[in-house]
Amino acid sequence: MTKQKHSFFTSNFTSKKLQSLLAVTAFGLSASMYTHATTTERCSSGEGFTLGTFYTLFKVSLPSNNCMDIERNARDQTRHSVDFNWNGNGNGDDMVGGVGWASGTRNRTVNYRVNSWQAAENDNPGRNQFGDVTFGLYGWSCGSRIVEYYVVDRWARDAALVNGRKVPFDNSTGANTRSVGNARINGATYDLYVTTQINRPHGCGTGNRTFDQYWSIRRNIAGVNRDHTISFRQHVNAWSNSGLELGSRMGYQVLAPEGIGHSSGRIEYTLDR
Predict the structure, then answer these.
(1) What distance in Å separates the CA atoms of residue 43 and residue 66, rounded to the nearest whole number?
(2) Pair 15, 147 in one domain
(3) N or C: which end of the chain has fewer CB within 10 A?
(4) From the CB of residue 120, how many other CB atoms can be counted at a distance below 10 Å?
(5) More confident residue, 10 or 59
(6) What's the structural domain count of the chain?
């Protein structure tokens, strides 16, 4: 009897110990599967879905090693980070892209953090070399009115300013840009502009069209390694109060850096939905 009891408790203990070890091992394997982020690289113009998010990338005259890495957070798979690298050497160079939503909405609230910012415009007017760097919410409205819009929260510190203010880059290259006022949104002051693009490619279909760009440009750039919010509805209302209406259908909507012309750098940010 004593031997049987001893045998029973020993085998029972061993069984439980084995189960515990197996459970710990399984947990460790399971945890290791989900504690490593997943990353993908995009180096060519295009749009689509990857790692559970919509993305878009548009490049002009830039080599294949100018890329955008997209990373899905291991613990919160609704969060995505982007590592955006480019090196423009010509006035016609352009790279814009990021992650967000295939279908935009006027009521979007975007929470984000810029993790790292190393960007420069590399202007040299004496050599007719110009560049531009911006970061913010970017997208299109389609249908009744094609509009390309920018809510710019951050721009390069070496940007060419006009009367101490950051203006749309096309303003310095002769496009038809006008100021339509300013608005106080999310604790910051934004200057509002509209620019007309003539016979240019657009984000609502194929071919070229003439369309307006709406701009909200933050006067004081958003800080690095801080949480920020863009309340897009408030920008839509500010534009509307200035006579600028969006189209009847919203196209894609992404949080995106853009490097134009003689600009270069690396920008890392996280979109927290």
Answers:
(1) 6
(2) no
(3) N
(4) 16
(5) 59
(6) 2
Residues 123/160, Cβ–Cβ less than 8 Å: yes
How many whole angstroms separate alpha carbon 229 and alpha carbon 233? 12
Q: Could you tell me if 44 and 170 lie in one domain?
A: yes
How far, in Å, CA of 155 to CA of 119, rounded?
Answer: 9
Side-chain half-sphere CA neighbours of 206 within 13 A: 0
**Residue 161 phi, psi dihedral angles, 5° rounding:** -100, 155
Residues annotated as part of the active site:
148, 258
Does residue 228 have a pLDDT over 70? yes
pLDDT average, residue stretch 27-55: 78
176 has pLDDT over 90: no
Calpha distance 144→141 (Å, rounded): 9
C-alpha 174: how far from chain center = 27
Task: Give the span between the Cα atoms of 51 and 72, in whole angstroms.
Answer: 6
Task: Examine the domain organization and report whether 45 and 27 are in the same domain.
Answer: no
Q: DSSP characters for 42-89?
A: E-SSEEEEETTEEEEEEEES--TT--EEEEE-SS-TTEEEEEEEEE--
Q: Could you tell me the pLDDT band of residue 94, with boundaries at 50, 70 and 90?
A: very high
Residue-number span of the structural domain to which 130 is assigned: 39-272
Per-residue tokens: 218: 């933050």
Give the pLDDT confidence score for residue 144 in this predicted structure: 95
What was the pLDDT predicted at 116?
Answer: 98
Residue 261 has pLDDT above 80, yes or no: yes
